[in-house]
User: Fold ABC transporter permease from Metarhizobium album.
Amino acid sequence: MAVDTMAGGGERVSSWRRLGSMREAGLIAIILALCVIMTFASPHFLTLGNFRAMLMSFSVEGIVVVGMTVLLIVGGIDLAVGSVVCFAMVFAGSLFLLGLDPWSASLLGILASAAIGAIMGFFVTVVGLNHFITSLAAMVIVRGLCLIITKGTPLSLFTMPPEFKAVGQGTFYGVPYVILIFIAVVVVFDFLLRRATAFRKVFYTGSNEKAAQYSGIKTKQVKFWVTVMCSTLSGVAGVIYMSRFGAATPTFGVGMELNIIAAAVIGGASLNGGSGTILGAILGIALLSVVASSLILLDVSVYWQDMIKGCILLAAVSIDHFLHKRKA
Assistant:
């Protein structure tokens, strides 16, 4: 009996140790600590309006983070996500102004975003370029397309029907549709990453591409479709932003890739591929959202805000480097 009790106690201790070693647990602790500090630092932090604003902010970016996380796991990276988000807005908005209904225009905007991902995937898997260079070129080209389509002028889309605006502005029993869409995307992709055989190939490819090839996995196809998926989710986010703001600005999303990559890496997605979780990435974007809200409430200059975000990204990449080095 004593042995069983000791064994049971040992299992509980081991479970707590595993929980404590989880990166997600550390992120949760940091977020909670920051929230407690800000509660005393600013009377406006612990309010329903502020938390709603933070949730709305990171929910749409969180959709893009999901795609970026899966791409990082496979060993890639996408610097063009901010430009693709803007392109989906601009392309769909332009089609709407030409007379197409907003639903069809949005669908075409998402498909166009997927096509951009397919082009990047082609250059990575067929031509042989790496994700960094390919996505860097795509970032500049797609941003240029946004400026060409709009001629540098924001598109006013306030004539959109109320049922479409509801996607970005409406609520369901008090919960914004944006948050519900975000939760649905997170749940689906988290389940697929954990349980679906096809998505396990993403981890195998990112961990050791040659070994994955020898085991029969078509790694180039895996990389191609993950690249398309990341751009598609960016297109979905762009359409939601269009519905939410009722406008399409050609400069929207500049610098967004910084937040997205930082959130994924902070959450445990390795730049070397092979590791990462959806939950960790979402906690990463939540942490950045709390930090951004805190800096605004403390009246910190926007220039300092960018510097602080950059320092957080550098710290996250450094931690990832040392963890990967230790594991190796």
About this structure: Residues 219-245 form the longest helix (27 residues).
